[in-house]
Amino acid sequence: MKTRQLGQHGPAVSAIGLGCMSIGIADVYTSSTRDDDAAIALVRRALDLGITMLDTADIYGTSEALVGRAIAGRREGVVVATKFGIVPAETGRAVDGRPKRVREACDASLGRLGIDTIDLYYLHRVDPDVPIEETVGAMADLVRVGKVRTIGLSEAAPDTVRRAHAVHPIAAVQTEYSLFSREPEDALLPVLDELDSTLVAYSPLGRGFLGGRFRSPDDLAPNDWRRGNPRFMGENFTRNVALADRIDAVAREKGCTSAQLALAWLLDRHPRVVPIPGTSSQARLEENVAAADVELTENDLREIEEAQLEAEGARYSEANQRMIDR
User: Fold this and answer.
1) Of the residues 60, 122, 177, 202, which is catalytic?
2) How many Å apart are CA 181 and CA 203, to the nearest integer?
């Protein structure tokens, strides 16, 4: 597996990581019941295939605990990334970035993961009621005492990243980035270049569209949260399937899957990008890992650009969009 570096001084990680949300929230995408043994086996298979970066969060149900069990006895060389900040609705807040919460959340995550140090600790969403300098200052304190190795932000605006970086180096910023969501190219990636920070791309397969998984809304489980996502509703769904078909045609000509083409495009697009596709399927995991070996030619890249992909619909519902820092 090829590697990329997190930030200027952070650890090297596999060029493709593993997003671990779906292993901790069994019904987020499917109607299946949770299978802890299968989840642990999936993470261990990822490590066997050369994936070294595992991405989780305290809000992902049992994900942290399962990742911890999976890496027990295999901690060396594994880069554990987790996130804090999104809190249950009953707390009366959507996001909590107060310094007190920073410290409490870190200790709780360390306990669930069963490790002494978190390699990359993210603020999951920027708290509009707490200056970013205060939140990052508390995160920097965790670095100083050895509980955290590097820090990052998730869905943070370029100006917020600059302010945070002035307090402590930001090793990585996580945001949605794919052939369907290219917004980071406009302003965020140039800032990350300037600051020697890495972009960790979640939902790199367009939440499944770019993996060729959907032909109809009926392909989604009844409780799949994407049923409430604008890109999966009405005419947006139909148009986005048609866009994904264009990528599939290029992939077939290339001799790879559409998911592999989409991941290879991200890796080719910028040397600071690390995609973290999530899956609960070992077959999909192996397919995704193989994307690191797909080499795109100038002709491939031209055909992808000529496909003129621009997903129809917002990335999130209105409520979730309000949690995105702009």
Assistant:
1) 60
2) 9
